[in-house]
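pasting input
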Amino acid sequence: MVLARVFLKSGTGLGFRAGKKKINPQLLLMIFIGVSFLPMAIGLAYLVSGMVDALAQIGQEGIILSLGIGITAFTIFFFGIFYIMNTFYFSSDVEYLLPLPLKPSQIIGAKFLVVVIFEYLTELLIMGPIIVAYGAKSNEGVLFYLYSIIIFLLLPVVPLIVSSIIVMIVMRFTSIGQNRDRLKLVGGIIAMFLAIGGNIALQRFFSSSLKEENVIRMLTEGKNSLIGITSNIFPGTYFAAKGLINSTSLEGITNILVFAAICILGYLIFLRLGNLLYFKGVIGISEIRAKRKKITGKDLDKAIESNSSVKSYIIKEIKILIRTPIYFMNCVLINFLWPVFLILPFLAQSQDMSQLESLFELARNGNESIVFAVAFGFCIFIAASNGIAASSISREGQNIFVAKYLPISYMSQITAKALTGVIVSMSGIVIMIPLLVVILKISLVIAIFVVIAGTVGILFVSYAGVMIDLINPKLIWDSEQKAVKQNINVLLSMIAGVVVAVAFFFGIRASKLSLVPAFLMTTGISGLLCVGIYKLLEVKGVKLFENMNA
Amino acid sequence: MIELFNVSKTFGGTVKAVDNISLTINDGEIFGFLGPNGAGKTTTIKMIAGILNADSGDIKINGFDIRDNAIEAKRQFGFVPDDPNVFLRLKGFEYINFMADIYEVPEQDRKSRIEDLSERFNMVEALGDQLQSYSHGMRQKIVLIGALIHNPDVWILDEPMTGLDPKSSFILKEMMREHVDKGKTLFFSTHVLEVAEKICDRVAIISKGKILFCGKIGEMKEQFKSDESLEKMFLELTEN
């Protein structure tokens, strides 16, 4: 329990107060994320409420609970693979724990508990609205809510045990853990694409489940007969679903007890396996393999080239962004995935591509300045949300002192960091624009205007991102994830980007300007904003950088 | 030459880490900066290198004020921090090339300097690998190479021997002597008093933010009126 408490504190950063700050930025970030998911939770609750009414008529309302439990369990299992891998094997505390007189089961038992607690957040987002809406709509009693709490606390256990066992076996018997960067990168990319694919599949399932033949099948079977199909993903989830559905009868408590027993048994098996597999898979994993190949004079001639200090700084920033898996996935790759996320809702409508086609029609023949405004706004949003500029100071971490003693002015360093954001953001846009011209058939003129105006707009947003990060940089972190994903500055930059993009869109729409004047106005205003933020950085930004300590 | 005039630094409004110290490190001497943990050594070094701003006083390197003429002052020295875990995703030669760009080392000089320094520190085979694959000692060496690539007049080294194997330690001491013999300046902090005793021309001992002694080791022995080792004199000074 002591170990679990330490892991939890260092994982959330909630136990530590940085300096004189009255409000812990970490807590603020968590509250903000929670609030931003509220609309989704409310939407889900309304959906469930409607489904209860519809399904209760054919005696299949229980499917909502079993589906909810099944989907939650699967989501926990899937993402659990990555959490378990990072927590059990790649976290920075592993090297300090191994020499301590602790059994493997004690280490992984504590880490497992921490992962379960983190998964409660995922569970709350899915199960919370379902339970509340179902319970309210079906007028469930106290026992329903009591069983819900028990299920809520125990549901992550079995899926995470399955994830843990898979990971422990893979790490024990393969050499896959030897190149941890490649493993993290490949794993992260697979997770991203599977999440996209899973989203499409889920949406198609819901849209096709209301087909006639499915409805007829439900009508003839009745009595919650379908819960067996939807909840039998993991051992125990069927009993959890049955226990909840039959909360008013003896069958309810029996099933809950069986579910609890399965979880406890599973945990004991997990600890036993952990004692056998964990240490052999984790010892030596923090060693980074190197080639140690001698560089010849010729190689050195090719490798050694002189650049200006700003260019060299930019190259350094880009290399670190690309070579660090967390930075690559969250800051670089995301620039190229946004078009996929946008088209996703349309692809999910399997039979009906008419919505996608009307989007094509709008792009081809709609008001040119509106098309330009939308595309420009999109460029701003991509640059503001990739977090490259808004985490550029935070990513230095404890190494910020290097920036202080090198003979390169703070303004040059700020410019290099902003230009890094511009280069990476533009590389995604420059690839996307030709695709839009070919697929959506937007005019070449609009495309060229978007690239020009977009570059100026992205420069402004990048400078603004660096300014945001200079005001409150997150320099104390022990994993790169905390520098970019758990960094409120990235969120603030995203919000600012949305505000700017929306302001430009409505400004262009209200002005009723045609394409060329709209382009000139947008580029001109973006240029003025660039000058303004540059001046602010020269005065305030440099001062903040000068006074910064890790 | 490094000059500190009445330099002070306070943290949190109450903790005086450096209390009104004045020092001059002359050209042509190896100057050792000694003190117990928490004495103010690293704070002083960080102020000299421009990492921290002094609350009061002036610091000049070869006549350039570190605050008023920061860029020019920073060009005068090569700095080796006590923590060599920097830019771990860069390869060895990339790190050195980056430092060479920042210090504007001419391209024609780079290759020969990199070859010479990497051979001296036995790092030739590691240059193609990322710094994260290096041991602590190797990271220390690559940071050293990066600090010396521009052939600075002033070397500022914070605990430079930590993690170095005996051969590299010997080579570094040799290089330090070669450097000052050319009339250049060297300022370093260390906990290893035997090294300080062996190679330093002058030392300063700092404790609780104040300079307790500054001068040659021979002068310290005269002051103590004994032939004790530096270690004994140091302990007496700092615990008294």
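fyi Chain A has 24 helices and no strands.
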